[in-house]
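Supplementary Note 3. Input sequence used for the single-chain structure prediction.
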Amino acid sequence: MSERVGFIGLGIMGRGMAANLLKAGFTVRVWNRTASRMEPLVAQGAEAGESPADVAAHSDIVITCVSDTPDVEEVILGEKGVIHGAKPGSLVIDCSTISPKVTRQIAEKLAEKGIHMLDAPISGGSEGAANGTLSIMVGGEADQFQRAMPVFQAMGKTITHVGGTGAGQTVKLVNQVLVVGNCLAMCEALMLAQAGGVDLKKTYDAVSQGAAGSWMFTNRAPQIIQRDWRPGFTVALQQKDLRLVLEAADELGVPIPGTSLIFQLYRTLEARGHSEEGNHALIKALENLAGYQVGG
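The predicted structure, written as discrete structure tokens, is reproduced below.
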């Protein structure tokens, strides 16, 4: 009999992930701070939980996918948190992107109650979450990683055990440095194409499949050209991740000048009220500097 799964956090990523667990045949009990977000999942066959503790009490494996470090602490360790409902031997999988250091602290508190934990941040945008093709980077004990594989396989395609507790979060921060670097390169390239007077769609076709191609360019350049700012990942969440990157780099003494610059460019977008747009809206920071727009 497959293990019962709890899912906490039904945002832009979580709702697709929970739906794929249902499609894979898992019994899924869900909870979200905004209760209305549970309704579409309940319509697909999920059970509605009353609190994170309630979800944990009815589950063998509990997945959390929430916005930031304090949110994870709240749903796992808070007054009605997972720790108060989970049975010894159960497994908590955190798919949020949070501080590696805090991840290790949470894992220690769960271990005191006999509860296992994996940190399993994800990459692939809302498309990957909906399609079950996420990249999942996992830190924690190897036997718990194996235990969780059927769950991971329902949600993702590239599933990698990268090391001990907290390693998943560190690898996700590495991932985010690459994401925003690719994003800035894409934006600069499209600015040059626009100024040079070439057809943007033909330019995209010419370069996207060669050495200049990337997931970011393939998935987000068409959105920029159409001026479609719907988020696969919001500016606000990208900034949250970059704060974690800068904090980790500071602790480790790593120079990351390019990433620091991109953080400041995103800050100009936050100041202009673009926080809930997709992270590809980074191009607006360059447009504001240059005085012209791309596409449209």
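Residues 5-164 form a domain with the Rossmann fold fold (CATH 3.40.50.720). The first strand starts at residue 5 and ends at 8.
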